[in-house]
Design a protein that fits this description.
By secondary structure, the protein is of the alpha/beta class. The protein has helices at 75-82, 104-110, 126-136, 141-154, 170-182, 200-215, 227-233, 251-255, 261-268, and strands spanning 37-46, 49-59, 64-68, 90-95, 98-99, 111-114, 188-192, 219-223, 236-241, 244-250. The structure holds adenosine-5'-triphosphate. Residues 1-32 are annotated as: Disordered.
Length: 287
């Protein structure tokens, strides 16, 4: 994917991966451009289990970033803490230089979030939900109307805009959730499994909207299990396993010599063995 500097708008102007490499305490004077997301020592314990076990991560601005990992790796817990929805046991997070916990208003005005298990105001229509979200964000009514109409149109929801959200399908819920997350034109958009339950046509529509967003200098951070999708959409990836980041960087760098991101991923998370050896009773003559 082409690289474009947020500041200059010039393609090719982004610094290389080396300039973003993690390092230094969060309060240390940053070298080079401020990352869109800077995470240091992030930790979350549930009982005996460390769901997130000391994550350090810098996510470069203006990129389409995939956060991937097997089930239970800690992706949702990490995204919840990064977006201020879950308080970490330890560690710090900054969004474009603003501390998520010390400066929540500055952070929340700069981010859009489509969380897992999206909870929406079910008894509002899609249109009302956007109007409400826009006013909560402090946007003028006329601007909310304009943006809502455009988003509903692009996301193919105009015909369903007066339907109650409770009657929306899974894919329609994702799309109205995305519209609500985009309405205030955030700098960084966090999406937890945005394509889950979304048909190929709607997925293509969502994809177009996200590409438009990054082309305008926005940063997208999304989690997914679908490697083909991550490979085709993202130019930067972070791989999580057992609460830790096991690889990060531009897609080609993380893929390395593997032929696909899927192969690289399986090898990175130690899942490249053929499973099922112990299920010799399954199928065959043992019925
Ligand atoms: N509220 C909670 N209470 C107890 N354990 C939790 C809680 N939330 C998450 N966990 C545990 O933390 C670990 C990480 O969960 P998380 O949902 O962050 O993983 P994930 O990478 O998003 O997984 P998936 O891909 O399956 O959605 C899991 O073992 C999960 O059981």
């Amino acid at each position: 994917m082409a690289e474009e500097s947020q500041e200059t708008g010039r393609r090719d102007a982004l610094p290389s991966y080396g300039d973003f490499r993690d390092g230094g305490a969060i309060g240390a004077r940053p070298e080079g451009p401020v990352p869109a997301v800077r995470v240091r020592g992030l930790w979350k314990q549930f009982g005996e289990q460390a769901a997130v076990a000391g994550v350090d991560l810098d996510l470069p601005a203006g990129r389409f970033i995939g956060l991937v990992g097997p089930n239970g790796a800690g992706k949702t817990t990490t995204l919840s803490m990064v977006t201020g929805l879950l308080r970490p046991d330890d560690g710090q997070v900054q969004i474009n230089g603003h501390d998520v916990w010390a400066d929540p208003v500055a952070v929340k005005s700069r981010i859009g979030v489509l969380p897992e298990g999206l909870r929406l105001f079910e008894r509002l229509s899609g249109r009302e939900l956007l109007a409400y979200t826009g006013r909560l964000r402090g946007l003028p009514g006329a601007e909310v109307d304009k943006r809502a109409a455009q988003l509903l149109d692009v996301l193919d929801l105009t015909g369903s805009q007066h339907k109650l959200v409770v009657d929306y399908s899974t894919g329609m819920r994702k799309k109205i959730g995305l519209a609500a997350a985009l309405l205030h034109n955030p700098e960084v958009l966090f999406l937890d499994e945005p394509f889950e339950g979304v048909d190929p046509v709607s997925a293509q529509v969502i994809r177009g909207v996200l590409e438009r967003f990054t082309a305008g200098g926005g940063t997208v951070v999304f989690s997914s299990h679908v490697m083909e999708l991550v490979e085709s959409l993202c130019d930067w990836v972070a791989v999580m396993a057992a609460g830790r980041i096991v690889a990060r960087g531009p897609l080609a760098e993380v893929r390395g010599d593997a032929s696909t991101l899927q192969d690289a991923f399986l090898s990175l998370v130690g899942a490249d063995r053929v499973g099922g050896q112990d299920l010799d009773w399954l199928g065959g003559d043992s019925r």
